[in-house]
Amino acid sequence: QVQLVESGGGLVQAGGSLRLSCAASGSIFSINVMGWYRQAPGKQRELVATFTSGGNTNYADSVKGRFSISRDNAKNTVYLQMNSLKPEDTAAYYCNANGYYGTYKSPRAAFDSWGQGTQVTVSS
Fold it and tell me: Is residue 77 predicted with pLDDT exceeding 80?
């Protein structure tokens, strides 16, 4: 009942920037954590950055100082600003969100949803 849609991926040269967006929709009651993960061919999916409802952020060591995560709570959207991109950043980027869905009239339950992914390719 909660869907995530990513956008903003593309092809960029090394040193360039991209801004990814992820919008959550559905019968959302509250969102606890929104974050970004990535997976390159032949590699495991790894955490890139997370943003909690309390405003805490967490970044993978490989992207610290280059990437920045932010949230627009009114739009249930999370962003990932990626600067100084490197070829090793090339991967499919996936949005993740967890929290509770439902309304005040309906029973609420926890959700943990993933988007379909958006491709980021960095050329040297």
Answer: yes
User: What DSSP line would sit under 23-75, residue for residue?
Assistant: EEEESEEEEEEEEEEEE-TTS--EEEEEEETTS-EEE-TTTTTTEEEEEEGGG
Token pair in block for residue 58: 């967490």
CA distances from 13 to 71, 120, 121 (A): 26, 11, 8
pLDDT at 69 over 90: yes
- What is the share, in percent, of the chain residues with pLDDT greater than 70? 100
Q: What is d(CA 60, CA 64) in angstroms, rounded to the nearest whole number?
A: 6
With 80 as the cut, is the pLDDT of residue 109 above it?
Answer: yes
Structure tokens at 111: 């959700």
Say what the pLDDT of residue 106 is. Answer: 81
Find out whether 67 and 83 touch, Cβ atoms under 8 Å. yes
How far apart CA 85 and CA 83 sit, in angstroms, is 5
Query: Tokens standing for 53?
Result: 């409802």
- Name the one residue in this structure whose structure tokens are 């593309």: 10
Which token pair is 62?
A: 């490989």
